[in-house]
Design goal:
This protein has helices at about 1-20, 25-35, 40-45, 45-70, 70-90, 95-120, 130-155, 165-180, 195-200, 205-235, 240-245, 245-265, 270-290, 295-310, 310-325, 330-335, 340-355, 360-375, 375-380. By secondary structure, it is an all-alpha fold.
Length: about 400
């Protein structure tokens, strides 16, 4: 039985690769802006808004749906919606079609992120959950790293950069077939079906609320740097878009390596120690990006920032699941609402850069957001690893 569970982990972890498709929004936003002359940063940020807003709207309903149809079926549904998203640009080849495509991608990714993390807990033991989720982030980082490279390669093809969409559709279809034919029984929560009331009652726990805001900050910083970096390299280093977009690959490569290392280290050392070290590294990276004047130093700062940010999401997620383990579905749906930080931060960055006419201002805003994660260290160092002593069971 243990061997079967280990085999089932492979198609589940493949879902993290599909999850990484959403990170292509940063480099795609810049290609869309280049396709339409006169488009401002604020207008282009509508693409990321249309994608990540759904995490705010659909996360809790997805948790309720997951309680009814199961975690595996919810993951499969997310794959179907993602395939639909990849088809839209072939039908509507304009800015509206691009916004609609990323809206569907956001819906699919919301379904996936809410259901996939709890599904991992069905195939691994509690003491390996943080490390496994971090390894999942490593797989997601591989996908994110490949995204800008594939877009650049597609840009030189007959179909142009939009050839990335049918490619992603094929990969998603293969992952869906693999998971569909994998026997996997999801755990049924003993506390009953999830509901809006049960889910939002988790905010009664101060730690869960603070972790939720932490997820908002982490994802907002992640998406924010993805959108800002190509424009920063164009402005600061006078690079063309195809080469400036490769800066995102350096960022995601650093995240990929750090997530792999973190997945191994978090199997052995406490999350709270690793968290503090990671936040300090991320802030040092942002400071380096802000003050850098050369391409080499800017990329060095990007790598440092990516390495620091890589494991923060999985640490906050795992600590929340451990705190209220009997409410895994509700915790997941609530925290994935925090991914809407990817919709909140980029429009702010767009307005700041339109006003200041410098991308360095966006880096400064991202740094300020990161200070919250540093303040959260005090909570992480408390006894958050323990299950919550109080929870309103009657809800």
């Amino acid at each position: 039985m243990k061997g079967k569970k280990h085999l089932a982990l492979f198609p589940v972890m493949a879902g993290f690769f599909i999850m990484g498709f959403v990170d292509v929004v940063g480099v795609v936003t810049n290609y869309v802006k280049a396709d339409y002359s006169g488009m401002t940063d604020s207008m282009a940020s509508m693409i990321s808004l249309s994608c990540f807003l759904w995490f705010l709207i659909l996360s809790v309903p997805t948790g309720i749906l997951m309680g009814r149809i199961g975690r595996k079926n919810t993951v499969l549904l997310s794959f179907i919606v993602t395939i639909l998203a990849m088809v839209v640009p072939s039908v509507m080849d304009d800015f509206v079609g691009m916004v609609l495509a990323f809206a569907f991608l956001g819906i699919g990714n919301t379904l996936l992120q809410v259901s996939l993390n709890p599904l991992v807990s069905d195939v691994v033991s509690s003491n390996k959950l943080t490390g496994t989720l971090t390894l999942g982030q490593f797989i997601k980082a591989i996908s994110s790293f490949l995204g800008p490279i594939l877009v650049a390669l597609c840009a030189g093809s007959m179909l142009g950069w939009k050839a990335i969409f049918p490619l992603y559709a094929i990969v998603t279809l293969l992952a869906a077939v693999w998971l569909f034919f994998t026997p996997l029984k999801s755990t049924v929560e003993s506390s009953g079906a999830p509901s809006f009331r049960k889910t939002f009652s988790l905010f009664c726990d101060k730690h869960i609320l603070l972790f939720f805001i932490g997820i908002l900050a982490v994802v907002g910083m992640d998406v924010g740097i993805g959108v800002t970096l190509p424009k920063l390299l164009q402005q600061r280093c006078d690079l063309p878009l195809d080469k400036a977009g490769m800066g995102n690959s350096a960022y995601f490569f650093a995240r990929m390596v750090a997530a792999f290392a973190g997945g191994l280290l978090l199997m052995k050392i406490p999350e709270r120690r690793f968290y503090f070290f990671s936040v300090i590294v991320a802030l040092c990276g942002l400071a380096t990006i802000f003050f850098a004047e050369s391409l080499a130093l800017t990329i060095a700062g990007v790598v440092i920032f990516g390495a620091g940010l890589a494991n923060l999401f999985s640490i906050l997620f795992a600590l929340s699941l451990k705190r209220v383990p009997q409410k895994a579905n509700e915790v997941s749906s609530l925290l994935i609402m925090g991914v809407s930080g990817g919709a909140l931060i980029p429009p702010i960055l767009g307005m700041v850069t339109d006003f200041s006419h410098t991308q360095s201002a966006a880096v400064l805003v991202i740094f300020i957001v990161g200070l919250y994660l540093l303040a959260l260290t005090r909570v992480i160092r408390s006894r958050v690893g323990q299950a919550a002593r109080y929870y309103p069971r009657h809800l």
